[in-house]
Amino acid sequence: MSADGCGAPVGGVALADVDAGGQAVIQGVVRRDGAPLSGAYARLLNASGDFVGEVATGDEGTFRFFAADGAWTVRVLASRGFTAEYAITAEVGKVIDLQVDA
Prior knowledge:
The protein is mainly β and 102 residues long.
C-alpha cells in the first residue's frame, strides 16, 4: 500500500508502440500545466458503474487498462480535488488514448 493509503500500485507505462492484438486497450496521460502528473489515479468502471480496477500514474503520468468490448468509464482523480470521467467504447484490436488535463 502506498504512503497515501491507496492500495493501487504506482504505475506508469510506456504508451508508445502498444499492440492491442486480441485485446481492447484504454490508456492515457494525465498532465497538469503541460507536465506529466505522477500520483494521479485512473479508475475503470463497467457499464453499470461498478469499480473494476485502478492504477496510479508514474513519473510519465501514464495509465493503461486492458478491457473487454463494450462501454466503460474511466474516472481520473488527482490532487487539488480534480475528478473527471470519460465514457469509452472499447473494441478488441483498438487502442483508445485519453489526454487528461488535471
